[in-house]
Amino acid sequence: MSAVEIIDKIFSQSLKSKIFVNRDVLRPDYVPDELPHREEQIAKLASILAPSLQGARPSNVFIYGLTGTGKTAVTKFVLRKLYEKSLEVGARITVCYVNVRQDDTTYRVLLRLSECIGLRLPFTGISTAEAYRRFIRALNLRSTLFIATLDEIDFLVKKHGDELLYRLTRCNEELDQSKVTVIGITNDLKFVDSLDPRVRSSLGEVEIVFPPYNAMQLEDILRKRAELAFRPGVLDKGVIELCAALAAREHGDARRALDLLRVAGEIAEREGADMVTVEHVRKARAELERDRVAEVISTMPLHAKLVLLAITNLVSLNGKTTTGEVYSHYRTLCSKLGIEHVTQRRVSDIISELDMLGIITARVVSRGRYGKTRVITLAVPKDVVYSVLEEDPYASVLLPGNR
DNA sequence: CGTCCACAGGAATGACGGGCGG
DNA sequence: CCGCCCGTCATTCCTGTGGACG
Question: How distant is C1' of C13 from CA of A305, in Å?
């Protein structure tokens, strides 16, 4: 079969999918028309923003909840409805949504906000302070109620401080024709404490909390989406329940549940199956896990990879290991490569980092006369670690089976 | 019951590279 | 464009500590 034929076959197969009708509704950025079990939050946000329809400035809002609890979807949904209503009743409202992780500098955020009021700023060339001045001036000329939504706001503050937040929450004093309301969204619950008290009090005028979904609620959500995503009857029984149960274990993360369902469907399709089974869900879980691990490992510095390799070798041998063992084995790995090793202090930090990333589990134990150490086990399958380390040009040399 | 092991982990400091503000 | 600042990776020096052993 020629290359063209192969490609044609793959493309036409995906066009007449036996599994999916519309897989996009399972993607994380899709905003559904219905948001089950978030009625309370929708009502609260809507009632906070409602005064804007009469031209009054709504309170600033601070929204928090763990990942996959519907914060972004609810906010986008309410803003969309608000905007539609404003056109209907002729209120001057401008809504703007910025994901601060994607646009991760103060300047880029300002650029986005400016776009929403029809101001074209140059990509580069002017200072942030100048951009801010132009933004304020243009905003005032437009005489509108400006609702600025900053998603994953903790990223911006951690990287660049709360300068922008401070200015946005205070700029109403500089405006006479327009008003600004800020909606801040974060999944870092401790983030609020790290804010400047002045920003905290003005941004936190009203707070909305998004609790995690439980397994039943996740099932509901999945069922509604599955109706849109899949051909009728292709989901084997137990599939939705399993996706929901797995995601419920991870603090009720709806994004995770939808990812599982989507990837399970994709695997079923790749295998040419007629149905999505629980087995496909299990494979999806492994695939997502591998992707996550691959992502974090690939960005780690070389010595962290070598420490992880040392841990994995020792754990495959004995089931568990300790800091001292890891360090000496790590040093032999370094000498095999003919490179310098880092100090034990540093290795100790690397072990802590690997623990926080959920790749290993390390807990401190005292063995009395024989000192205090950390007992380390792997939190992911060892084959996953090995296969991911295969991609590193240095670490791969030391892998079992090589050389 | 005090010791003392084998580390944990805090603080200060430095090299280095990339991006920001002026 | 250039200097400066900031985050990351790392070192050095250090104090702290749970509990088996003598």
Answer: 27
